[in-house]
Amino acid sequence: MRTLSIVIPVYNEQDSISPFLEAARPAVARALALMGNGATVEYLFVDDGSSDRTPDILGILSRLNGDVRHIRLSRNFGKEAALAAGIDHAAGDAVIPIDVDLQDPPEVIVEMVRHWLAGAQVVNARRADRSSDGWFKRWSARGFYRILNRLSDYPIPENVGDFRLLDRQAVDVLRQLGEQARFNKGLFSWIGFRVATVDYVRAARGAGASKWPWGKLWSLAIDGITASTTMPLRIWSYVGGVVALVAMAYAGFLVVRTLVTGIDVPGYASIMVAVLMLGGLNLLSLGIIGEYLGRVAREVRQRPLYIVAETPGAEPAPAVERLRA
Q1: In the record, which residues are listed under signal peptide (predicted)?
Q2: Which end of the chain is more exposed for a tag (fewer CB within 10 A), N or C?
Q3: Which fold, 3-229+303-310?
Q4: How far apart are the C-alpha atoms of 108 and 198, rounded to whole Å?
Q5: Alpha helices, H only, 36-134
């Protein structure tokens, strides 16, 4: 008997939860029919420290519906940690993370399951177009993926978010990974396995407002690059080498010119330009090094990625979730 786990991270989504379940149930029922007799589903909501009525609504739904479970984190740890918590606690043979806002259509789940039954272990849901986004978001997303894939040690598919199907074997591997600074899209790509892709058109948000302002998107982009590659450090080693060679060549030129022509070296302006340029390069390179050192510090502290405060309807959860190592 197979089980399908639908993992839904939520943060202050009191208006979106019930519409999501109403929209998801028909599509999931068709997916269960493909999986054969006795197939079951669990809707696993991860409450990422909500301050509205989200915990109350989830409590009511889990008591009234045997296929709804939820866990509550002790505070807002961020979507990446909440998604990791859901994957850790999912019991299904296949796990599908999905947002509650209905921008990712539940109907795509049927095609995902079809590919999974055909042998795929990871089924990516890829946006066919980004016409629903503004021009700046489309441009910045395209630039991010191009930069990331040029720098990364492994390819990360463009226009693929967290919405995908993960086989139990893939889930078990993900649970063994110990990163504290999470970039789940990178980890989903890093693990490999047999991959299939389903294209879909993203819908408008069903209810509520986006929890992703530009500041958070920028932080996610930085986390994505630093989590996926050390190439920025190597690039600045190359830049430093090139600058040193140029400086030595220019110094040699000035010495030769002074000896041959007797022209004095121009002073203040050229020195200030060189100092300011090198100072800027130093600060930029220190910032890049600092990003990586910050990640190292987070890993060395070995704090848990998230803390589960409550798992209603299940065995009492420990106060502090296990270290992901």
Answers
A1: none
A2: N
A3: Spore Coat Polysaccharide Biosynthesis Protein SpsA; Chain A (3.90.550)
A4: 8
A5: 54-64, 79-89, 108-117
Q: For residue 109, what are its two tokens?
A: 């789940």
**Tell me, what's the pLDDT at 318?**
43
For the chain, the distance separating the N- and C-terminal CA atoms, rounded to the nearest angstrom, is 30
**Cα torsion at 161, 162, 166, 172 (round to 10°)?**
130
Tell me the pLDDT tens digit for each residue of 74-90. Answer: 888 888 888 888 888 88
Pairing label, strands 195-200, 122-127: parallel
More confident residue, 257 or 88: 88
Element (DSSP H or E) covering residue 97: strand 94-97
- Average pLDDT over the chain, rounded to an integer: 77
Cα separations (Å) of 226 from 106, 233, 292? 32, 10, 7
* Sign of the dihedral through C-alpha 153, 159, 162, 166: negative
Whether 258 contacts 265, CB under 8 Å: yes
Residue with tokens 């109907």: 107
The Cα-based distances of 59 to 3, 44, 53, 64, 209 in angstroms read: 22, 12, 10, 9, 22
Q: In 3-state terms, what secondary structure has residue 3?
A: strand
pLDDT digits (tens, 9 = 90+) for 259-276: 777 666 566 556 766 776
Task: For residue 10, list its beta bridge partners.
Answer: 47
